[in-house]
Amino acid sequence: MTNIDLTEVANYLLAQQQLSDMTEALDALLTPYEQQELVHRLQIFTLLAAGVSQREVAKQVGVGIATVTRGSKAFQAGKFHPEKLSNGTSL
């Protein structure tokens, strides 16, 4: 997979001042399917951070094991920071 420069997207999202502005921006940028996939990805990371097995994560979130494995690789690479969630541990 090619590296995609997300700088412009990140800057646009960072410019949102209110939660309502951010949700509106995400709604404009992402299709309903992409929005659901983003929610799934956060759920996967949150459950993995809580020590839930990959198979159980797949079952709870309702996704395939390959999706969880991809999320697990990103999580293990340190690309997700659960402390940045609003409550620090779960969605």
Explain this structure to me?
- The chain is mainly α.
- The chain has a domain at 32-91.
- Helix content is 63%, strand content 0%.
- The protein is built from 5 helices and no strands.
- The chain has helices at residues 7-14, 19-29, 32-49, 54-61, 65-76.
- α3 (32-49) packs antiparallel against α4, α3 (32-49) packs across α5 (65-76) and α4 (54-61) packs across α5 (65-76).
Which features characterize this protein?
63% helix; globular; 91 residues; mainly alpha
Task: Give me a quick take on this structure.
This protein has 91 residues and is an all-alpha fold. Helix content is 63%, strand content 0%.
Write the layout of secondary structure elements.
Blueprint: H1 7-14, H2 19-29, H3 32-49, H4 54-61, H5 65-76
N-to-C CA distance: 29 Å
Low-confidence stretches: none
Shape: globular
Tell me the total number of β-strands.
0
The run of helices and strands is HHHHH
Largest sheet: none
Number of helices: 5
User: What structural category arises from helix and sheet content?
Assistant: mainly alpha
| Rg (CA only) | 14 Å
Helix share bin: 55-70%
Question: Roughly what fraction of the amino acids lie in strands?
Answer: under 5%
